[in-house]
Fold:
Amino acid sequence: MNSPPDRSEIGRRLAALKKRIGFAMERAGRSEPLTLVAVTKAFPAEVAVLTRSIGQLDLGESRPQELRDKAPLVPSPVRWHFIGPLQRNKVKYVVGVAELIHSIDSLRLAEAIERRAEAARITQDLLVQVDLSGDSGKQGVAPGDIEATLEAMRELPRLRIRGLMTMPAAEADLEESRAHFRELARLSATLRASATLPAGANELSMGMTRDFEVAIDEGATIIRVGTAIFGPRIL
Structure:
């Protein structure tokens, strides 16, 4: 079993990662802010606490119950992101806890979140996940359905759409990932030009440890990185 990283190791890895991010932004000719989400999935809450103490306030989880259990143990300020698959019967663990839910993959899920947010009298920020693989078994809204899905979601008053997210297949090489990221950026621009995406909904959540530099090249505004900061997951 791997041991969790200590504060100095997390700090060293974060500094190295931020240097790589800076180089990637410079190569892409970009100067606008980029959000780094440190994904603490499968690590104990102590790791999230240490990461926050270094000044990394955007933290990510991909399991609803893990977010539910971990979030109360990490002192404020912290911004939780939920980045994993979400079933409708688990939205109660995520709505109002995650500042941004990245993985809205259907209108039915959005409606479940709307009901939970209405009960809590809050507005929930979210991203719509787009499946660009062409595989109907993958998670996300198909590009051909995205316009109608967004128009229906905009009728849900407790939801605030912030942009789009995608996740290439685990086996995708860097150029395949690049094609996915480029297509998401193109789709976002088209949907914003037609006002299907609301004003200001320009977030593009794409890129992880293996491909974040390519994602930055293609316009990512949020990257989700775990292994480069914390090492291999604890099994």
In short: The mean pLDDT is 96. The beta strands are 35-39, 58-61, 79-82, 100-104, 124-129, 159-165, 203-205, 222-225. The two ends are 6 Å apart (CA to CA). The longest helix spans residues 7-27.
